[in-house]
Amino acid sequence: MSDAPTESTPQPEKTPKPEATESTTPQPEATQPEATQSTTPQPEATQPQATQSAQNESTQPHPADYTYVPDKQPTQKRTVGVGVVAAVVAAALVGGVSGAGVSVWALSANSSQVTDGTNQPANVTVNNSKNETAITAAAVKASPSVVTINVTGTGAAGTGSGVILSADGYVVTNTHVVTLDGQTDKVTVKVETNDGRLLNAKIVGTDPVDDLAVIKIDGVTNLKPATFADSSKLNVGDSAIAIGAPLGLAGSVTNGIVSALNRSITVQSAAVPTQSGSGTDNTAPNSGQSPFDFWNFDQGNGSQGTTPQATATISLSVIQTDAAINPGNSGGALLNAAGDVIGINCAIASAGGTSASSQSGSIGVGFAIPANVAQRIANELIKNGVATHGLLGATIGDVTSDPKQTAAKTVGASIQSVVAGGAAAGAGLKAGDIITNFNGVPITGGTDLTAQVRLLPAGSTAKLTYVRGSQSATVTVTLGKFVS
Predict the structure, then answer these.
(1) Which of 90, 106, 376, 391 could connect to 480 by a Cys-Cys bridge, CB 3.0–4.6 Å?
(2) CA 401, 405, 408 angle in degrees (round to 5)?
(3) Are strands 461-468 and 471-478 parallel, antiparallel or unpaired?
(4) For 322, what's the count of Cα atoms within 13 Å in the CB-facing half-sphere?
């Protein structure tokens, strides 16, 4: 499974030529927004917790008027452990999880009828506060900010989750939840709050490129917004707590750890056909058929097996967790030990077959879109109705599958061609170059690079390290605008 062979509508922005210095050291990431710190008190817990400084720094969600601008840029690169950056792609692509027997699935529970597993208030039950754990405290704090979303279209319906952004009803969720896996944008949306209210909502905007969407609940002013953590400060091994409505069971809480950061997955787009266009991307096509199918998983609970219409693919850079998440968790919160949102749950890997009927639910490999990305996309959707994404302006593939790179001594993303006037050309990149690092994140193949480029808004600058022949160099590239 792969992306289309060339990019479209590159921006003719020029950037400095390659610097003379040789560098193999990951460069600091400069474009991820760093949100302001929260003054919201953290929940108390009686159980001892490991020291996790990243989990205790949090940011309030964007204000209701959504005029938020980050006050500064991050100055530290992300800490990435050995083997963290790997693409969950087809077996023919090297540098990631083997495709044999592994599939990636979305998490909403689409079916012929809206799931009503619980229409009761979904408060977290605490019977003995003296024995309250850190997980309990985090769930109690976040529960009022997580909702269940019921979506109904013609002949199809589904259940997902969402995270409240503002008191007046903005909620972030997944595109595949509100488009019923890309089948339609003509839907009715109902939202169940944790105190038992059933409210009408409408779609504000969708961003299929990052599988994020924003809805607006009608006529509310007193919802509790979630508190968001700075996801760029996460560490592998940090606590991870999932809360949402798996199989329609609202308010379900599971826990685990952050298993990996900057994990790259390639999945099918949830854009409805009129949105998806050509699905053009900047990763060269892969030979063979991928076993990964993102959206059929949503046909799980009571499915009649309708086939999604979307055919384009997207590349996502995600947080991997072993916290159990299942159909219906899509759009729900992944929390840290302080009860702050670190990600928006979006998919799981399955060791079953490649169809919805053969998937087996959670096997401890789940994925969430980082909180910093979710906040940026939500902010743009609310302000502008659309979100922007970076474009490199090059056709790329894996070094290991490029017949012209048989003498290569490193893994990475192989540049097969460069678009004239595009970002890559402006930075002095050429066909045959091997990109090994992007903004401090190691690049092992085309999916890694595409996912990292798409994380950033159009016009962002990034540090890119490449190998040409036996020499390594680092350049600054100003990204163009991706048009899906």
Answers:
(1) 391
(2) 110
(3) antiparallel
(4) 8
Specify burial of residue 100 (Cβ count, 10 A radius: 0-12, 13-18, 19+).
exposed
Residue 39 one-letter amino acid: T
Report the length, in residues, of the chain: 484
Q: Do the Cβ atoms of 295 and 13 come closer than 8 Å?
A: no
DSSP assignment, residue 365?
A: -
- Whether 181 has a pLDDT exceeding 90, the answer reads no
Helices (H), 236-310: 273-276
CA-CA distances (angstroms) from residue 363 to 231, 266, 322, 347?
Answer: 24, 19, 8, 12
> Tokens at residue 318, please?
């995600």
3-state secondary structure of 472: strand
- Compute how many other C-beta atoms are within 10 angstroms of the C-beta atom of residue 76: 11
CA distance 257 to 421: 44
DSSP track, 176-227: HHHTTTTT-S--EEEEE-TTS-EEEEEEEEEETTTTEEEEEETT-S---PPP
Higher pLDDT, residue 463 or 361: 463
pTM of this structure: 0.72
* Coil, strand or helix at 56: helix
Q: Is 361 left (phi over 0), alpha (psi -120 to 50) or beta?
A: left
Q: Which sequence positions are flagged as catalytic?
A: 176, 211, 330
d(CA 182, CA 276) in angstroms, rounded, equals 9
Note the Cα 35 to chain centre separation in Å: 18
User: What's the rounded Cα separation, in Å, for the pair 5 and 290?
Assistant: 16
Residues 42-55, mean pLDDT to the nearest whole number: 41
197, amino acid identity: R
Which two tokens mark 382? 């609310």
Q: Count CA atoms closer than 13 A to 195's CA, side-chain side.
A: 5
- Which of the pair, 65 or 393, is modelled with greater confidence? 393
